[in-house]
Amino acid sequence: MDTSEQASVSARRMRTAEEKRRIVEEAMVPGASVAAVARKHGVNANLLFGWRRLHKRGSLDGTSAPAALLPVTVTTPTLLPDRGSRPASRPTREPRRSRPERSASEAGHVEVSLPDGVTVRVHGHVDGEALSTVLTVLRSR
């Protein structure tokens, strides 16, 4: 006999929140077998266990409060692309001009290019000790 003839296709049954609640409560009776209750109602036991977890959390009926949306700000990336995605040639740089002294509150800019092609760019206030630590780690790679 061909096995394809034996296969039966069953459509999924969508159960109401009330039906789910009744089945879950039946499965939660002391001494009740979740597997037996699931079989009785034509439900997969794993699905019934999931409904029980939702019921215990109070979210089986789907009336729980929706997740709160958080504000999001999109900024420029803080990580540089890896070496494989960099352009083959480096752009020419303009000669640096001397700049007047800046106060501590003004933003600064430091750019360090290492021999292995790694470039470290720091915008804003530069903490010399932190930058030194980063460069030491990069040199030791």
General description of the model:
The model has no long low-confidence stretch (mean pLDDT 76). A two-stranded antiparallel ribbon has the order 1-2. 34% of the residues lie in helices and 7% in strands. Helix 2 (17-27) packs across helix 4 (45-57). It is mainly α. It has helices spanning 3-6, 17-27, 34-41, 45-57, 128-139; strands at 109-113, 119-123. Among the domains are: 14-57; 83-88 and 100-139, no CATH class. It contains 5 helices and 2 strands.
Unreliable sequence segments: none
| SS elements, strand count | 2
Structural class from helices and strands? mainly alpha
Distance between the termini: 66 Å
The percent range for strand residues is 5-15%
Q: Order of strands side by side in the largest beta sheet?
A: 1-2
The string of secondary-structure elements, in order, is HHHHEEH
Fraction in helix: 25-40%
Average pLDDT: 76
